[in-house]
Design goal:
Radius of gyration of chain A: 20 Å
Largest interface: A-B, 43 and 43 residues
Shape of chain A: elongated
Number of helices of chain A: 6
Strand content of chain A: 25-35%
CATH topology of the largest domain in chain A: Cyclophilin
Oligomer: heterodimer
Number of strands of chain A: 13
Largest sheet of chain A: 7 strands, mixed
Number of domains of chain B: 2
CATH architecture of the largest domain in chain A: Beta Barrel
Largest sheet of chain B: 9 strands, antiparallel
Shape of chain B: elongated
Structural class of chain A: alpha+beta
Order of helices and strands of chain A: EEHEEHHEHHEEEEEEEEH
Order of helices and strands of chain B: EEHEEEEEEEEEHEEEEEEEHEHE
Number of helices of chain B: 4
Strand order of the largest sheet of chain A: 5-13-6-7-10-9-12
Distance between the termini of chain A: 50 Å
Helix content of chain B: 10-25%
Number of strands of chain B: 20
Chain lengths: 232, 315
Amino acid sequence: MDWTPAGENALRLVLSEHPSPSTTQGLVALQQEIRELLGNAWIDSAIGYTTLTVFIDFTHYPRERVQRLLASLDIAKITARYAGDFFSSNDAHVIALPTLYSPDVAPDLLSLAEHKGLSLEELIAIHSGQVYFAYANGFAPGFSYLGEVDERLAVPRLATPRRAVPAGSVAIADRQTAVYPKVSPGGWHIIGRCPTLLFDVNATPPTLINIGQWVRFEPIDCEQFVALGGEL
Amino acid sequence: MTESTLNQLIVSDVGLLAVVQDQGRFGYLDSGITQGGAIDGFAYRLGQRLVGNSLSAAAIEITLAGFRCCFSHDTSIAVTGADAAIAIDGHDKPMNTTLFVRSGSELTIGHSQHGVYSYLSIAGGVRSEPVLGSRSVVMRDGIGANLCPGDSVPYGDIGPCLSAYQYAAPPRTESQLNLRYIPGFQTELISNAVVDTFHNTRFSVGHNRDRMGIRLSGPAVNTGVSKLWSESTCLGAIQIPPDGQPIVLLADRQTVGGYPKLGAVLSVDCARLSQASIGTPVKFTAVDPTEADRILWLVKNYEAELKLAKLRSSL
């Protein structure tokens, strides 16, 4: 495994060919180790589905020295040490996202059910009946790419993205699901709405869902939605 | 400690867009928070230097059109970046120069004649409320907001600079941009023939541009790469979407992306690209990382050694 350049101040590593929760857990472990190793040379880092990109201040820390340091890491050992340690899909560690599945807040709910030959109840049961893994954050602050959605619900993105998807919209694209933390353009199919705040600049960390965590959607009704701060 | 809220500039005209920017926000990519920061780092740092600020102080970045404001207290300012006519209380003043403004003075920055982004730097820096370690505004993410007429913006209460300087900027004559980039990301998946063609192609700066990135137009680049797992982007990343028209990602880029990338343009050249007008011819030249380190070292030391001509003692 090689560290290759990602522009003038970053190096990237492809940990595996395909994404999986264990790959992501390995990337998180590696990220922590490297942050400690690099100290002040570390500027930032970002996890992708299969990659770790580390931003480094090469104007103060010579590239060769940093590269030697990174090359000395026993990647297999680091990723194995943490495997299964931090993250558990056991109930206690799963983030619950209360979700109102209703056509009133979800313009694609009925059409998706019809398209998939499912009743509304079946669709809700499938989407809320499993845990999802946070593979990456991006697109917008607090937006987590969650997977994998049951094949029975998988659907390509909308041909024309919406200009403004309401905050809290729970949506599906391919075998991924996500919650839009704030109003933004979006091309995913909206099937519900979650009243939980996903991004708060005053919180540490500012995101509710962090890479490597498990998430579950919990069906709620209108009253609960409003009681939890949701706006209809 | 009281951060003075008494020293304020009162904005009366923002033109197309004016936002507070500093060096950017670091350490939050995994939360989906972009780097942001002044898009022309050179002009931004020059401005800070002219008013005696640290290089991390915040300035106001003005896009293309005119800007007008008044100052509540005596201070020193400098306007750098895109060429524009500037005046204080109706008197023409030079750019790239430490300027003294009195309490109640009005500054006007005209429409830019050359370039896109201008910077208004103020002694003591703009003191808007920092968010996650930076004052940089990222409108798309709702971090801070663009300035509106009537807004008042706090600035440092250190008073005017003791000395005034001028940077005699050589005229910008960039009729063609040569963007140096470090190959990387998916280059190894793309055939040499495609990369050669990419190097020999003359692109031009397209209409579609903002703080996130600049789309170039030219013959389509066919990478032959289809399925990719989304990964971190970086400043200057050369992204090739399905239509084959490269996009160079800039300060407010999305943190992750799934389009193939050929590499990333050096930050110094991103700054030049950001100031280029629509239609400017662009070509790419690959440099290796060691060469890039050397270029950045030179730029950094050149900036540190900038011969700012001392004009006078301003007090």
